[in-house]
Amino acid sequence: MEEPPVRKPTQAERYKALRAQARAGDAVAQAQVDAINAGNRASAAKAQAEGRKYRYPAQKAAYRARAKAAWLLALTPAEAEDARQRRARLAAAKLKREAAAAAPPKPVLSAAERAVQAVALNLARNRAAYQARKQRMAAGDPVAQARYEQRLAQNRQRIAAKAVKLTPEQRSDIARQGALKRWSDRIVPTVTKLTPEQRSERARQGALKRWGNRAAPSE
Hints:
By secondary structure, the protein is mainly alpha-helical. It has a domain at 123-165. It is built from 8 helices and no strands. Helix 1 (11-23) crosses helix 2 (27-49). The longest helix has 28 residues, at 111-138. It is elongated, with a radius of gyration of 40 Å. The protein starts with 10 loop residues before the first helix and ends with a helix.
């Protein structure tokens, strides 16, 4: 279950806390309060000169809260639920963006490293999809079962098409190459590097080692 997004203080709440710090004697907070007040006075003078009505941040926050409450009252329950879910999604997306911005930069990968990473990611996705399909099939999902049988038939047809294109000699040669690849590390170093005399001597030594303990007492 996802945790609800953390609520951040509003602009009015931040300004209220800043003024409390300034009243407590914090010089930095007092300087920030003075700068904010000067900016508000300049904005109010500019709005008055242009014939507009200026609202201070606290007034603007209260106005928005009243407008939002009136808007929510005019919504149906379904519309209110949609609006709540949308706000939750926007808040979660904002937290995700902030976490991504605060995270350390990703290392720069070369083309070969990116290719290896893409192959590993694709393999992990395929495995996850296969496990999910198996679970759906075990649960009796007919769509998953039909898709699995279709994929199985396609794979069998592809394998059969490859096999038809090969002659018996080619298939035999492929099997021989596979056997050589599997057993070359065991056979080649011990057989091809020995002369017939060396192989005969090795066989004789093996026979002596196997039968020496039995033949010695009888002699």
